[in-house]
């Protein structure tokens, strides 16, 4: 009976009912779109790396070391003492190979594999091969050229990591960077392409497979060099060249292959240079780890050799568990576990997360305004129906029944508005979310570009870069695998994604604002924020709560009225 009366009343008061349905429809559509965006962003954050391999490294936490050393003191003497203490602490903090393997054992089944490289410095020998980076000025064994940076910790991705958090790398007199690789996986992580010959045999086996000289003695060591190095020194596959270690011992290498670095390196110096090893990767000599050990240049033997140890994990969740496992195994706060894969992914979905925050704010505002509007409309409706309610109660209908009818009327129009609003929201959620995300991405790109321009003015002192040439320079400086000058300047590709895992791999590459100058960030530019049952359920719950809230206010007002007084006032 209550439902029948409510339905007839709703049909009789068509104008008011239609207005109420429109309000509920608009609120529902906004709620559905907001919830769809929030769920897509949350799913992207939690499951985006669920099925993707993630690499991790352990490096020194310099900020924590300086803090522990009391580097924040204001007194000049204290500050100087704290700096000395911090430098001394950092100089002794390079992890050994056994330390890295200890944390690998602690991770257990979380790891899919591990690989590492060790990096030492070599100097040029008079009359022998010259380094590319200082070929115009060096000719002797004491030549250093621009190789002071050689061996500095590189930060390229999760590939070669931070050199294990070494405290300074090789000595500043190094002309060449000698890299020993533990496995083919370590070689693949360098992002190089063999242009002639073959890749060097990697590994840590005690048996060094190197080239024999004419007398049958193993006196030369197989190595790979860059095309630039080979061309400068007139060398080709099968030729030999000589370099010296820090003690002056001469080492003869046989070139088994030449290569180019992905992203075109040719002399990018400093941390994060192309190739990920720091210094000029044009002067990088690649050998097996066994060769490096046989030369006495491994980290266990030489204090000037740095280690880059990489842990390969199955997913982002495994990465979080790995961080905890390292902490449980005794890794102090002076070190930190990092993953460029996780950081790059989080950077790529940053516009989406910002959009999710906006959607959350919109949801709260819409629900709050909707509640106020519905309560006001309910009170207005009750005030215009006081005589009707007085007649119904005078005819013997209990006031609770009248109040219940008012609530049912509100619920009926709410359900109609819910159905219409859900349909509209389902249709609009994807294009609206992508349009809003496009705006967020554009804003992030503009901010990043401005930061790159600011860096350019500060570092170069000339006209602000920012055009295609600027983007090309940034791409070349970053040395990241797959980033070319053209794509940095004009890529229009977009990343498509579903609600569970956005694919940022095809997104346009733009200068990132969270890293060094020239770092590229591939933003997720599209998201399939489709409506699912969870979205519909939450939207229905929100709308019904609003309807019941408005109805509850109506109940309170109905129960306040006295039917005889209503009729008396009417007469």
TrEMBL record:
It comes from Pseudoscardovia radai. One of its GO terms (molecular function) is transmembrane transporter activity. This is ABC transporter permease. The keyword Transmembrane applies. Residues 362-432 form the ABC3 transporter permease C-terminal domain. Residues 74-83, 133-151, 466-511 have a biased composition (Low complexity). PANTHER family: ABC TRANSPORTER PERMEASE PROTEIN, MEMBRANE COMPONENT OF TRANSPORTER-RELATED. InterPro entries: ABC3_permease_C, Macrolide_Exporter_MacB. It is found in: Cell membrane. One of its GO terms (cellular component) is plasma membrane. Keywords: Cell membrane, Membrane, Transmembrane, Transmembrane helix.
